[in-house]
Amino acid sequence: MSGRPTKKSEQRPERRQEDGAARRPAKLTVASSPHMAGRDSTRMLMLDVLIALMPALIFSGCYFFGPRAFVVTAVSAAGCLAFELLFNLATRRAQTIGDLSAVVTGVLLAFTLPADVPYWVVLVGDFFAIVIVKQLFGGLGKNFMNPALAGRVFLFSFPAVMSSFPAVRQWLDLGSTVDAVSAATPMAALHDGAVPAFTLQEMFTGIRGGSLGEVSAALLLLGGAYLVIRRVIRLRIPVCYLGTVALLSYFFPPAGVADPLEWMLYQLMSGGLLLGAVFMATDYVTSPVTRMGQVYYGVGCGLLTVFLRTYGSYPEGVAFAILIMNACAWAFDKWGKPRPYGRVRSRREAAE
């Protein structure tokens, strides 16, 4: 160590550095554990959902209901994008149309509508889904119910439009002079306690009446398998939902039904049950996150669906069942919260 005195000029940088460090607050960002980053993003998840919906859309537009199915879906997706863009501009929020969530909402809403629905009705449903249900509650991740299903239920304000479904493959009859032919749906017969006039093969492939994207059970299951393989959704909610409907339909068929198994299969493949169980009940934002909470949620959706189909004035009950369970998701998470390892619950906590 040298005895040479230290010059003031040599001390200044150290003092400046120390003073600056004292004045500058340390930046520390702590996230919830586990501290692990993944490659998934909202855009990638929404893109996977759109890919899973493509088989049903392609066959609906090319075979079941004709090119108008593509137009209705495109109008619905464009309307949702436009309403989200305009709302963000009006409220000076950051634009979120790039995450594709509005496109998914538009496509799902179109899937729940008749293929010959007027375009202005589609836009009304888009406005309600995006502006009222999604954006007014804070945007993606803060809505408490599924926007597409809420838009569909709101459109029940136009019962004549929402209860008339075009016949499958009618558009192929190019020589017909009739503008549109309404077809009976399987849900109308099931609501009356009768087996539909369609075979199980027609129900599985999609040769029967219904909404634009719900007619083919095979294509919806194919899209669901893709989402499971991509780990976008887990089987817990769909299995509990469909399993509850299957058990209740098998063990409690209406009087006069000779084959409970056949009745159960018709119930599973009719209406929007598969579309709702696979693509809507599994919505990350509006469904529980705990394992037991998801079980309660799926069972509750199944119970309400069967109850509404049997005793409700409207033949279908999927949309109402999922929306009601969306409102109860927080309670299911509370009830399904796992107990910390090694901790014994007191009687008071167990009662609560």
Automatic annotation (TrEMBL):
Pfam families: NQR2_RnfD_RnfE (PF03116). Its EC number is 7.-.-.-. The chain crosses the membrane at residues 45-66, 72-90, 97-113, 119-137, 149-168, 210-228, 235-252, 264-282, 294-312, 318-336. It comes from the Bacteria. The modification FMN phosphoryl threonine is found at residue 185. Keywords: Cell membrane, Electron transport, Flavoprotein, FMN, Membrane, Phosphoprotein, Translocase, Transmembrane, Transmembrane helix, Transport. It is an enzyme of class 7 (translocase). Residues 7-22 have a biased composition (Basic and acidic residues). It is found in: Cell membrane. Residues 1-35 are annotated as: Disordered. Belongs to the NqrB/RnfD family. The complex is composed of six subunits: RnfA, RnfB, RnfC, RnfD, RnfE and RnfG. Part of a membrane-bound complex that couples electron transfer with translocation of ions across the membrane. This is Ion-translocating oxidoreductase complex subunit D. It comes from Lawsonibacter faecis.
